[in-house]
Amino acid sequence: MPGVEALLSAGTVCYGMYANPKSGNQGSLVRDGVVEGWDLHPGGGPCTGMPPQEVLIAYIYGSHAIAECCAHAGLFPADPRPFTGPPDLWAELPERDHWQH
Fold first, then answer.
1. CA distances (Å), 26 to each of 23, 49, 60, 81, 92, in order?
2. Nearest-angstrom CA–CA distance, 29 and 7
3. Are 29 and 72 in contact (CB under 8 A)?
4. Is the pLDDT of residue 81 over 70?
5. pLDDT at position 53, please?
6. What is the percent of the chain with per-residue pLDDT over 90, rounded to a whole number?
7. What is the b/e burial string over 27-52, where b = at least 16 CB atoms within 10 angstroms of the residue's CB?
8. What's the CA gap between 34 and 43, in Å, rounded?
9. pLDDT per position as a tens digit, 28-65
10. CB count, 10 Å around CB of 69?
């Protein structure tokens, strides 16, 4: 949701992914509150018109969507625990329109 990503990306980068069972992974890239990419397809391989750095990332991470999301955000976890769990913390978002930013 753009509103959540805008808040999370203040001063940094946020890459969000929705694992859509019908159409595949859908991603979004937000840098310092500004949406830089929407309806991206992490793990789907390179596409025509991608900048060279994104083509390289798409080839390196191939069909590994979560790894590609981390690379776009500049994250390189040392172990799989952030993905395999258990979580350190659950945070409930306050009631608001999370699509607005």
1. 8, 18, 18, 23, 23
2. 13
3. yes
4. yes
5. 83
6. 27
7. bbbbbeeeeeeeebbbbbeeeeeeee
8. 23
9. 999 999 999 888 889 888 888 888 888 888 888 888 89
10. 22
Residues in the chain: 101
Long-range contacts of 49-58 (CB under 8 A, 24+ apart): none
Q: Which two tokens stand for residue 12?
A: 């940094």
Q: Are 41 and 48 in contact (CB under 8 A)?
A: no
Contact 93, 4 (CB under 8 A): yes
Residue type, 43: G
Instruction: Taking residues 90-96, report their average pLDDT.
Output: 85
Token pair, residue 23, equals 């159409």
> Most distant CA pair in the chain: distance in Å?
40
